[in-house]
Amino acid sequence: MAAMVSRAVLLIGVVLQLTAQMCGCMAYVGRGDGFSVELIHRDYSVKSPFYDPSLSQHGRMLAAARRSTGRAAALARSYATAGNGSPDGGVSEVISIPPYDFLMYINIGMPPTRMLAFADTGSDLLWVKCSNGTADDLPKATAGSGGPPPTVVFNPSNSSTFGRVDCQSGTCKAFTGTGVSCDGKSNCKYLYSYFDGSQTSGVLSTETLTFDDAPGGCIGCRHRQQLQVARFNFGCSTSTKGSFTGDGLVGLGDGNFSLANQLGAATSLGRRFSYCLVPSFVNTPSTLNFGARAAVTEPGAATTLLIHSDVDAYLTIALESVRIGDRSFTLAQQPRLVVDTGTTVTLLDKELLDPMVEELTRNIKLRRVKSPDEEMPICYDVSGVGETAFGKIIPEVKLGLRGGGVVTLKAENTFVMLHEGTMCMALKEVSKEDGGMVMGNIAQQNMHIGIDLDKRTATFANLDCATSYPWPSPPASL
């Protein structure tokens, strides 16, 4: 046992050393307790540039569910592509763009360029769209109501702190994307592919990142704090393929190039973050925390180990059982569950989902109705019950995690209102060909979820996210 512990400590030390060498960062932090990020949902928040006032609240939920279906399937297919594997084995505002549900503002360069990037727990590279300084690279128009915001393009020639990663460096060799190559000037060129078919390519570079502590992130603080990190490794993207209508992407997953890993190497914050997602019907921002603020200390918190995934960037846990009332369900082979903020619905294996649906429908004494959308076929008429009362008659779903922890999914985590008076189950089958399972962001609502890449743990605690993080209300004009 002692030898195993020693090898584990040595392995962690090697990973941290590699990350530190890759980053080559220096940083200063405004406060020792960490930072908090304001997360704004693409569809639901009036702060979002994608907010469509012509849609009803139910219409926004339906749009989000449809948008996430392809992403959920792509995440699951990635397991089949990568192999079977083994289960043993700063601060900004956030908004969202398809196929992701959240984005965050980052400030890059000196002087800083403010950019709106996807926030994704399913990948690890931070990249932004880059310009070569010509007029053709600059945004042409602004967005109308409900359309995408104008794209901001980073121009490296305007920054005094921009640098390129050398092709022979350890950083270039450590890149785990689709591939790297060298250009004629020995720059490290990268290609990063996503499982939905989208891609980004360009030059691995270094730059100064500045994060502003979001309003309300530090209760009682007299001044807004900042985190600044120099020589942060990122992708300076000169070409994209797919629906990247934002300015870039911030990888929050489990990989050497992720935001958490690089912040941990550059600062005293550690390689950890947490988030708390408010329900869709609450007009309050969600929250992302770094450093000491990422600690999940609420009563009843359940902690489990992050397990090795066939895709390095995925945040994956082992699901040992599911309990509804006095019935418990398991799979013959212990399934892996990807914790993903970019997917709306939860994706489950048919062998597990079918008995769960049977038990839930047996306990729900309401009239079944036709679904507004084929992606969520199991729906109930709640017009005479009300959303609040409906939540009290839905059985809780308890997820048994490796290590003995239990995560409780309440009605708001398993059902959504897709139409006035119609509540539908937010659980969807994953095909045997795809194989992976995904815990979507509906299942994560009103939970404080902490990811600690140093301890290799994920922690879940039920929490009223809206009242626990009292962000300022948006202006009335919005």
UniProtKB/TrEMBL annotation:
SUPFAM superfamilies attached to this UniProt entry: Acid proteases
Claim: Coiled coil is one of the keywords in the record: no
InterPro entries the UniProt entry points to: Pepsin-like_plant (IPR034161), PEPTIDASE_A1 (IPR033121), Peptidase_aspartic_dom_sf (IPR021109), Plant_Aspart_Prot_A1 (IPR051708), TAXi_C (IPR032799), TAXi_N (IPR032861)
Entry GO terms, CC: extracellular region
Segment forming the signal sequence: 1-27
Keywords: Aspartyl protease, Glycoprotein, Hydrolase, Protease, Signal
Domain named Peptidase A1: residues: 102-461
GO MF terms held by the record: aspartic-type endopeptidase activity
Biological process, per Gene Ontology: proteolysis
Keyword set includes Protease: yes
Superkingdom: Eukaryota
Protein family (similarity comment): Belongs to the peptidase A1 family.
Name used for this protein in its record: Peptidase A1 domain-containing protein
Organism annotation: Hordeum vulgare subsp. vulgare (Domesticated barley)
Lineage: Eukaryota, Viridiplantae, Streptophyta, Embryophyta, Tracheophyta
